[in-house]
Amino acid sequence: MVFNWFRRQHNESQEQAQDKSASPTQVEPQTESPVSESGEVSSQEQVADDYLAWAKAAYKNIQAKQRPQTTTTPSETESPTQAEAEPQLVTEAVAPSSESQAIPIQTETPQTESDAEVAVEAAEQALEELETAVAAESAIPEIVAAEVEKVTSIAENVPDLSVTAETAENREGVAQEAVPFWARDDRQARLQRLMETAIQEPEPEVRPVSATTEPAAIAEFADVVFDDGFLWSAEVLAAQGRRPEDVSIEEITWLKKLRQGLDKTRRNLINQLKAIVGQGPLNQDAVMEIEALLLQADVGVEATDYIIKALQSKLREQALPPEQAISYLKKILRDMLEQPFVESYKRTFAPEKDTFNIWVMTGVNGAGKTTTIGKIAHLAVKSGYKCLIAAADTFRAAAVEQVKIWGQRSGVEAIANPGENTDPAAVVFDAIAAAKARGSELLIVDTAGRLQNKKNLMDELSKIRRIIDKKAPDAKVEALLVLDATLGQNGLRQAQVFSEAVKLSGVVLTKLDGTAKGGIALAVVQQLGLPIRFIGAGEGIEDLRPFSSYEFVEALLSG
Ligand SMILES: Nc1nc2c(ncn2[C@@H]2O[C@H](COP(=O)(O)OP(=O)(O)OP(=O)(O)O)[C@@H](O)[C@H]2O)c(=O)[nH]1
Fold it and tell me: Which segments constitute the SRP54-type proteins GTP-binding domain (predicted)?
């Protein structure tokens, strides 16, 4: 059952999800007692205990999901080389991505695992080639020698490689019979050298699975200390009604990253806001202070006015302690971010399964368009979609190369037109034909982001649209604007131009990591009326996720 990263649920329930008006990311959070099912308002300690229990359960499940990869014992059907190599290389808990530090209890990152697997495969292949060479009637000494050399050099270069004496002897035994007499002495000497150099490791020691991954120990977790980021992420997921058994380490890692990314914006906002809103109805000074804070975070004038009015009217009605005032502020922000869904836009933004979806990506150069295309392609592949990229930013030759590289990273082919300054619409034409021929479900179209001339931009985008309408009239077409969050209010002006040139389905906000201008998300929604569809918080392939107003606001305002 594939997890759909766009819908944040397993694909099995996609059909039902389409009927629902709210996606899981928009589930109204249970602000009082997120985990308790009794309906009673729990005490804060009880709530904290519930979250902790949830975090432990999630941790247990994450560990359990990783365990099958980590405790593999060699099966009888495996070749001696595999059987000997695996226990040695893969006995520690394995983190699914390079971000293994996201797991609160540190485990060894198995960096050597894939290297070694590749090396074992290479050695196997080289030995096979050697056997083939020596078995061939026509084999000549030079070929045999070259093959032996190859095996030897692989073994020399990979100290962990468990090509053991037995393996080499077995191979040799098989090969010896087939070796013509004239090759034997030379080969014998070289194989001897191979064995001497390849046997680097003693008998592989199968280390016991650590106590914390044993079922009994998992159940307890009494002395597990979760880091703050893990607990916060668990709390955010639990509050949205997620179940511990459905949560993956990638989701936790992403939330930690988002929170970390918004750290600068949050630190500038939260303490001062708490101090101000905790003093009862807002006087003129308090209003000005909040205004300054929000404007500094690039929330924008209109959005700031709206927030202050909403906050003020609530605080006039009722004096709230700081925590509750912040909770109310969070609700105001969430409602603002959700506003586009109330009137104009569908909440869920995911490629429809078994349908031809075309997503046209727009944005100025440098906004992170190429990177975003690669990340979305990666999400699509992970979610089980057949995906293709159209490299239609033909304005810059480097853009085509970049998008191809990102395509390779995500395992998605990029259709490009050789030659400089080719017609982007022609690339789209070819890409649609290729996508149809291959039964692709999602075609992501890169476009040039020339802003210097609005007319050019409009012409180019409308030409692409015309081709799409003609070649794929039944396709479900969306257009996304990629916007660099670090540009703050300047980015809004760009967004304005693009939204006049093409009907946008939403915005991808990139580079939220490390900016103090995270409030720009609110300005985009408030001033342009566009929903945020994805957010990027890093340069890595995993550093982009569908936008969730709840998660964003929590990351922005949780103390
Ligand atoms: N920190 C950070 N950097 C990002 C993010 N997204 C993209 N970048 C970086 O921004 C730079 C520009 O990204 P590109 O994807 O090449 O931008 P583009 O819009 O395609 O621009 P051109 O390649 O000039 O057409 C690269 O160095 C990316 O690594 C993000 O979410 N966080």
Answer: 531-544
